[in-house]
From TrEMBL, chain A:
Protein's name according to its UniProt entry: Septum site-determining protein MinD
Stored Gene3D superfamilies: P-loop containing nucleotide triphosphate hydrolases (3.40.50.300)
Native organism: Chromohalobacter japonicus
A biological process from GO: division septum assembly
GO molecular function, one term: ATP binding
Protein residues bound to ATP: 11-18
Pfam family, one: AAA_31
Automatic annotation (TrEMBL), chain B:
One GO term of the biological process aspect: regulation of cell septum assembly
Protein keywords: Cell cycle, Cell division, Septation
Protein name from the UniProt record: Probable septum site-determining protein MinC
Organism the protein comes from: Chromohalobacter moromii
Gene name linked to the record: minC
Residue intervals of the Septum formation inhibitor MinC C-terminal domain: 139-239
Keyword Cell division in record: yes
Composition bias type Low complexity, residue spans: 116-133
Annotated region described as Disordered, given as residue ranges: 112-133
Family matches, as SUPFAM superfamilies: Cell-division inhibitor MinC, C-terminal domain
Family to which the UniProt record says this protein belongs: Belongs to the MinC family.
Length: 272, 243
């Protein structure tokens, strides 16, 4: 049976899809059979971040409506073994996503995979609720910023009440906090909330901290999940996150303000 | 919050208020029958009959003319103070005004109340107990998150955890938060002016007691992030440190 992980946030633009792509890739790189599903019907992005947009033929909605088989819609990742992508539809309506259909797809995938990563759309409507409904674990992506923290708080409330586990009174969804776009320099100058502020309000286990990094934008535009770029701080931070998800104890990195040394100032080096 | 901060001391201010009020639902217009039943009630719970203001509801009576003056006299003799009449015909309204009482229009038809009324008169004892027994409150463990609302419709609400921004906690009685209070807290939602709000760390978006409120920006910054208690004093929320 696969473990179903939803990557969600409430607020848009905080890095859900980037994180879903990086974490799914990271899990596959560690030898786990992984599939990542795009639930953002109508605003499909995951295929771009995963660099497989030209290979999309069928999508999740086609499968749910019986127009294609699951194996026809699954796209095998070219770089990583054990990794598949199930894209969303760009043209269909969100309402085409039915709970019964999603349940059937997840059940079938569960037989074959170790991890199912669901990339949730922003918001708290139908699509976002379906993405989280069947989850065993949730990664709540949050930027160190008040509106993002409040929306994450709202999502945590829904995870505790509007999921299958909650409705069946089973053990609750395991919640993980993933802080992205963290810039220690701006935290020090008071522009951003501190790591402690965010943790205190959301009061859930911190699974990772991804620093603001040029590598993320570069990776998105190239269609290569940033976890492949192990020279970058963001790539390493996602790799740490995956380790923690797998139960390893990894110390936190990239959360402290680093003064630029003379050499890096002269040669414009530093954190990429 | 009162708005009379003018230079001239005003003699009074008008305020809307929701006061708890006992309604005496009459099912008989016979003053003698009322007298007999009241005498029984007084012996059961004398504490209740301390010049308690009551509204006489005559909605269930079908009589166009009432011996309103005699009924009022019976009530006063048993230390009940009729302050108004609810329902009834136009002559009833006129005689209420003539007696210096207020008059309220009848309530919307509520079949439930009609069914319950005869039951209550048949078994007066449990009813009398219910009014003196302490109301059951509610204990909530965990974080109250943005968008969530936790209510104690009767009694106090105890939250063991944080109340986050965008969350709302309400209670008929007092609100106790053993954690940071960052959302909205409303106590005494049915008008209980004795209710208070207590928290370990004050950063509330809104504090309200029996309809009187203070917003975050009205709160003295020195009290923020402190353990505090909030009480109603002269229609003003009084926040004091517990530290």
């Amino acid at each position: 049976m696969a473990k179903i992980i939803v990557v969600t946030s409430g607020k848009g633009g905080v890095g859900k899809t980037t994180s879903a792509a990086a974490i799914a890739t990271g899990l596959a790189l560690r030898g786990n059979k992984t599939v990542v599903i795009d639930f953002d019907v109508g605003l499909r992005n995951l295929d771009l971040i995963m660099g497989c947009e030209r290979r999309v033929v069928y999508d999740l909605i086609n499968v749910i409506q019986g127009e294609a088989g699951l194996n026809q819609a699954l796209i095998r990742d070219k770089r990583t073994e054990n990794l598949h992508i199930l894209p969303a539809s760009q043209t269909r309506d969100k309402e085409a996503l039915t709970p019964e259909g999603v349940e059937k797809v997840l059940e079938t995938l569960s037989q074959e995979y170790d991890f199912i990563v669901c990339d949730s759309p922003a918001g708290i409507e139908h699509g976002a609720q379906l993405a989280m409904y069947f989850a065993d674990e949730a990664i709540v992506v949050t930027n160190p910023e008040v509106s993002s923290v409040r929306d994450s708080d709202r999502i945590l409330g829904l995870l505790a009440s509007k999921t299958r586990r909650a409705e069946r009174s089973e053990p609750p969804v395991r919640e993980h906090l993933l802080i992205t776009r963290y810039d220690p320099n701006r935290v020090t100058s008071g522009d951003m909330l501190t790591l402690e502020d965010v943790r205190e309000i959301l009061a859930i286990n911190l699974v990772g901290l991804i620093p603001e990094s040029e590598a993320v934008l570069r990776a998105s535009n190239q269609g290569v999940p940033v976890v492949h770029d192990m020279d970058s701080d963001a790539g390493q931070a996602y790799a740490d996150t995956v380790s923690r998800l797998l139960g390893e104890d990894v110390p936190l990195r990239f959360h402290e303000y680093q003064k630029k040394g003379l050499l890096s100032r002269m040669f414009g080096g530093g954190r990429r | 919050m009162s708005l009379n901060m003018d230079r001239v001391a005003s003699a009074f201010t008008f305020k809307g208020g929701m006061l708890p009020m006992t309604v005496m639902e009459l099912t008989s217009a016979d003053p003698e029958q009322i007298r007999a039943q009241l005498a029984g009630k007084v012996s059961q719970s004398p504490a209740f009959f301390q010049h308690t203001p009551v509204v006489l509801s005559v909605e269930q009576l079908d009589e166009p003319h009432l011996a309103l003056e005699r009924i009022c006299a019976v009530c006063r003799a048993h230390k009940l103070l009729p302050v108004a009449v609810r329902g009834g015909t136009d002559p009833v309204k006129q005689s209420a005004w003539a007696l210096g009482l207020g008059w309220f229009p009848p309530q919307e038809a509520r079949p439930r109340a009609v069914e319950e009324a005869p039951l209550a008169t048949a078994e007066p004892q449990p009813e009398a107990e219910a009014s003196s027994a302490p109301a059951v409150g509610r204990i909530y463990r965990g974080t109250v998150r943005s968008g969530q609302q936790v209510t104690a419709p009767e009694g106090d609400l105890v939250v063991v955890g944080a109340v986050n921004p965008g969350a709302e906690v309400l209670a008929a009685g007092s609100v106790h938060v053993y954690g940071p209070l960052r959302g909205r807290a409303l106590g005494g939602i049915h008008g209980d002016r004795q209710a208070g709000i207590f928290c370990k760390e004050l950063h509330a978006e809104l504090l309200s007691l029996a309809g009187n409120y203070k917003r975050l920006e009205d709160i003295d910054p020195r009290l923020l992030n402190q353990p505090v208690q909030v009480q109603l004093r002269d229609d003003q929320l009084n926040i004091s440190s517990l530290g």
